[in-house]
Amino acid sequence: MKGKTYSQNLREFLDLVKDIDGFPKAENEEILSLSDPPTYTACPNPFIKEFIELHGKPYNFNDDKYLKAPFTRDIREGKHHPIYLSHTYHTKVPHQAVQKYIEYYTNPGDIVFDGFCGTGMVGIAAALSNRKAILSEISPFATFVANNFLNSLSPNDFTEVFEEILQEVRSECEWVYKTKHTSKSINTRTKKNAEVIDSFGKLGSINYIVWNDVYQCPVCNNEICLGETSDEKKPGEYNEIFTCPHCYSVVNESNAKKVRVEKYDAILKENIETVLDKPILISYSVGKTNFWKKPDEYDFQLIEEIESLKIPYWVPIVRMPNGRSTSQALKSHNITHIHQYFTNRNLYVVSKFLDTCKRKNFKIWFIISSLLQKASKLMALNKDYVGRVTKGVLYISSTRQEINLFYFINKNITSFKQALETLNFDKTIIISTQSTTDLSNISSNSIDYIFTDPPFGGNIMYSELNFIWEAFLRVFTNVEHEAIENKVQGKSLQDYASLMVRCFLEMYRILKPNRWITIEFHNSKASVWNSIQKAITSVGFKISQVSVLDKKVGSFKQITTNNSVKNDLIISAFKPKKEYTGQSIKSPGKGLEIEVLRDQLKRLPIQQNPGRTDKMLFSKMLAHYVENGFKIRYNSSNFYKILDENFVKFDGYWFLEEQVQEYLKWKR
C-alpha cells in the first residue's frame, strides 16, 4: 500500500474482484464514489485478507481447546432501540439479541462473520462486544446503510453537517409545504373550527396531504373520490362503501374503475397514461397547533406551480425491473420508472437533498434514505390518519399520504442522534458488497463465529424492494447470485436451495473447525425449511439444536413439535474438526457411533434437553449415516444397547460419565 491511498488501490483492484459473485451493476466511478476503503467497498472488498492478517488468529489444530455447548438461554429483546428505529430497511435482527450470542461463543478480539448482513446489526453487536467483524451482503444499498451505522460521524460532527445541509435545503424548498390558515379549518385535537381570528390568512406549514385516486361511478359515469366526505369533523376518511354524490348509487372499489388520463412526463419527455388523483385533505400546523382543511384555491394554485416546476437537479431516470414486488404498481397505477413513485413536490425536495449531500457529506444521505419510501406514493393513509408503508411489497394504495420531509425528518433525527451515542466507539469492522456464494476474498479457517439471517425462499424480494433506494445511489444489486425463490428471475425452490448450498459451503470453508454458526430463519413453508436444513448439513455442518422464537413473549424456546416452521427458528450448528470428518467418511462402524454420540452429548447443555433422549440421539445417528452415504447398520434396539454400554442415563436423558456431577448439581 506504500505511496498509494486505499482509494487508489481499490481502483486498481476492481478488475481483480469483478469476477467474484455479486459484483454490483454499476459504472466503476459510481462504485468508487460510494466506497470508503478499506472499511467499506460497494463491491467485493479486496482488503479483507489484510484485515484478517492484522486482526485474526491463525487456526492451530493441535492447540485448539475450544469447547462450547449450544447457546440455550432465553432472549427477550424488542425492536424499540434507537439503532433499530433509525432506518426502515425490510428485515433487521435486534443487535442486543445477537450480542448475547457473540459474547457466549467468542472471546474479545475474535472475528465474527455475517454473509447476509443487511444493515449491519451483527457488526454493531460485535463492535459493542469488543469483537472484530467481517460483513458481506449482495445489496449495495444494505451495505451503504451498514457502513453508515458502523463508520458514522461523531454525534457532534453529524449534528453540525446535518444542520448545515438541512438549512440549505429548507431555505430553497420550504415554500412547497405552505398552506393558508382559514376559518374553515378543523382543530385536530378539539375537532372544532379554528378560533384564532387574527391568524387567518397566515401561512401554515403542511404536515401531510391526503391524495385519493379518482374513480368513475359505474352508474352515472361521473368522477368520484371514495375519500371525499361531507363530514367536516372527519375529512378525508376513506370509505369502503361510498354513496355517489351525483346519482346516490352505492359504489366501492370493486365495481368502480379508476379514471386514467394522458399526462406529459417532463422527465421522460413524453406523454404517459396515469391514474387521475386529487388532494382531499391537508394536515398542517400553525405554531404548535395542528389543523385539517380541505384544499382551497391557494393549494390548487401551489400544486399547479409545483407540477410545472422543472427540477434543476439530477433524478434517476430508470425503468423499474419486472418482478413480483413491482407488478402491483405497474398494474394499478402504470408506474414504469423510479421517479413516478414520487410527486413532483417530494421529488424536487429529495433531489435537492441528494445534490447537497453529495457536495457536503454523503453520510447524511443515510437519514434521507430512511424517509425515501415514506416520501413516495408507497405511503398509504390508514383509518387512524397514520401513514404507513406496507412492508415487503411496493404497494400503492388508492388513498395516500404525501409527507412534508422537513416535518418527518425531525422525527427520524431524534432516533439516529440517540443511536450515534451508542455507536460512538472504536470499531474494527470491514464491509463487502458481494454474494456469499463466492467468498474467495476470505481465507479458509479464519472466522471464529458466524451469525447470519439468510433470505428465506420467496418471502421477500430484496433486490426489487431495494431498487428505488439503489437508483439514487446509481449502484444496483446483481441478481444473478441473489439467493431467493423468484419466478420472474427464473429461480425455483430448487435453484434457491442450490444457491444456499453454495453459500453454506463457503461459510463452512471460512469458519474455523470446532466453531459455531447460528442461523436465524423465518418461513412458514416446510419445503423451504427442509431446503435450508439440507443446505446446512450437506456441506458438513452438524446441527446441534434448533430453537424457536416465541413471538408473543419475544423469547427463544427449544423446539419440541414438528410445526415449528411457522415461527422464527434459531439453528445452532458446528463445523467438526477435519480429523473427525475424515474418520467419519472412512470408517463407519461401532467405534464411530460412540465417537459421534460422545461429540453430540459433549456439545449439548448439561440439563434436561430433548437432544439427550433415546429417540433424538437415534435420529441424529440416522441423519449422520444418510449425510455420509453409509448403509444403516443398526436398528433402534442395537443402537440403544450402545447407549447402555457407553453412557449414563438419568431421568430419561443420556450423559457422558464426566457430565453426571454437573447435571446433578444443575438438578438441585
List keywords for this structure.
single chain, about 675 residues, alpha+beta, Rossmann fold, Arc Repressor Mutant, subunit A, 3 domains, eight-stranded mixed sheet, 24 strands
Layout of helices and strands:
Blueprint: H1 6-17, H2 28-34, H3 48-55, H4 82-85, H5 95-105, E1 111-114, H6 121-128, E2 132-137, H7 140-150, H8 155-173, E3 178-180, E4 186-187, E5 203-216, E6 223-225, E7 242-243, E8 250-251, E9 257-258, E10 260-265, E11 270-275, E12 277-286, E13 289-293, H9 297-307, H10 327-333, H11 344-360, H12 365-370, E14 379-381, E15 387-389, E16 399-403, H13 405-423, E17 429-433, E18 449-452, H14 462-465, H15 467-473, H16 493-510, E19 516-522, H17 526-538, E20 542-550, E21 555-558, E22 568-574, H18 578-586, H19 590-602, H20 614-627, H21 636-646, E23 648-650, E24 653-655, H22 660-667
Parallel strand pairs: 1-2, 1-18, 2-17, 18-19
Antiparallel strand pairs: 3-5, 4-13, 5-6, 5-9, 5-12, 5-16, 7-8, 10-11, 12-13, 14-15, 19-22, 20-21, 20-22, 23-24
Helix pairs in contact: 5-6, 8-11, 8-13, 16-17
